[in-house]
Amino acid sequence: MKKSLVLLMTAAFLFAGSAYAEEVVLFDFEEGLQGWEIPDWAFEKPDMVQNEIDISSDYASHGDSSMIMDVDFTGGRWTGAIVEIMQYYDWTDYGTLAVDIYLPKDAPMGLRAKMILTVGDSWKWVEMSRTYALKPGAWTTISADLKPGSIDWRRIQVDESFRKDVRKIDVRIESNNRPAYTGKLYIDNVRVIE
Amino acid sequence: MGFFRKRGLPLLLVPALAFGLALAGCGREREEADREVTATKPAEEQEVPPVPSVEPITEERTFYDFESNLNGWEVPMWALGKTDYVAQNPPLVSKDAASKGEASMKVMMDYPGGKWAAGLVEIQQFLDISPYRAIMTDIYLPADAPEGLKAKIILTVGSNWKFVEMSQSIPLVPGEWTTIKASIEPGSYDWKRVVPDETFAEDIRKIAIRVVSNNKPVYNGPVYIDNIRVGR
């Protein structure tokens, strides 16, 4: 009986260990913005429409709070709202990068989002090859494959070096002519997954 | 003057004749030289239009198989308000049928008949598929669906977002999976009003699949799409 209990506990411990190893939360905005900011250049561009960011406990996909972003999409032209963090990462052990974005229920359909990485010695700006449609009243997970051969990144042949030297993570929400939306959106649970 | 008539004329004629012969000779040399140039031109300069390979596809890469989610495929917003576009939003992941894995994308259609109507789904994604020779997808129509529906792949390519349809629509067979395939190689005639060049497949921005009823048939039911892939 004692032996099987020990075996059961060992198995549970191993299972818990492997489950924990599957995903690493990089930013959950529980204590603050953790270094995320609106880049200076974005304040100077008329087509970038983010006003300010902070943390908020209105909504959260991980923990109790998230990053709140105040945006003003005018409609009628392409506009984007961007936040970023500059930090060096080696994600060789991870296959996927993901982030959750919440759009309030009263927001219109049509807003889309993507992640952008800055990678390598040349600080290459690499956008995701596609955007995700954000659904009002729901969390949308934006995810991208980091592994060699991935088709999730634009204008780059993804090889092993791609994920080894990541220098910035950006999250951009876009309105391509439509919709117009002035309000909030929420970003949470920036993570890498094995 | 008499001397000139008797001796001077031949004296003038001989050099003139020699000069003339020399010129004619040069001309022959030039002609020969030209012929040599012409003879070497075809190999060096004549442009041979590219022809797609007829070799079989031996390697495939699946981009979308809808095993766990739609991978970004959707009915585009512009199609939602149009009366001749009949795909219901959103498409679904379904295990009713699959040509690869266990699931496919299920799109509910409602073709009224009596007019041209289409169901269209698409993904907006920047892709370089130039290492490949063809793009393919499988489409399944339930056995109780009528004959007459046809499908094609549509690409949006390049910085001017050019909309490029397949030149032919492929008839769908009820109760069977039909493979829609188009060559993306330079010189391919699989695309309407566009013959791909070397850059065609380097900058794909959207992939769409359109299933059409051209006046007939009437059909209200699902169409299944799976295994959107490239091959070489």
Summarize the structure.
The complex is a heterodimer of chains A (194) and B (232). Chain A has 194 residues and is mainly beta.
How would you explain this protein's 3D organization?
- The complex is a heterodimer of chains A (194) and B (232).
- Chain A is built from two helices and eleven strands.
- By secondary structure, chain A is mainly β.
- In chain A, 32% of the residues are buried.
- Chain B is an alpha+beta fold and 232 residues long.
- Chain B folds into two domains: 1-46; 60-231, Jelly Rolls (Sandwich), CATH 2.60.120.260.
- In chain B, 30% of the residues are buried.
- At the A-B interface, β8 of A face β4 of B.
Return Rg of chain B in Å. 32 Å
In CATH, what is the homologous superfamily of the largest domain in chain B?
Answer: Galactose-binding domain-like
First-to-last CA distance of chain B: 89 Å
The total strand number of chain B stands at 11
Helix-strand pattern of chain A, N to C?
A: HEHEEEEEEEEEE
Q: What global shape of chain A is seen?
A: globular
Helical content of chain B stands at: 10-25%
At CATH's second level, what is the architecture of the largest domain in chain B?
Sandwich
What features would you highlight for this structure?
heterodimer; A: 194 residues; 5-stranded antiparallel β-sheet; B: 232 residues; alpha+beta; Jelly Rolls; 2 domains; 6-stranded antiparallel β-sheet; 11 strands
Q: Which helices and strands appear, and what pairs or packs with what?
A:
The complex is a heterodimer of chains A (194) and B (232).
Chain A: H1 2-21, E1 23-27, H2 40-44, E2 50-56, E3 66-73, E4 78-89, E5 96-103, E6 112-119, E7 124-127, E8 132-133, E9 138-145, E10 166-176, E11 181-193
Antiparallel strand pairs in A: 1-11, 2-3, 3-11, 4-10, 5-9, 5-11, 6-7, 6-8, 6-10
Chain B: H1 2-44, E1 60-64, H2 77-80, E2 92-94, E3 104-111, E4 116-127, E5 134-140, E6 150-157, E7 162-165, E8 170-171, E9 177-183, E10 204-214, E11 219-231
Antiparallel strand pairs in B: 1-11, 2-3, 3-11, 4-10, 5-9, 5-11, 6-7, 6-8, 6-10
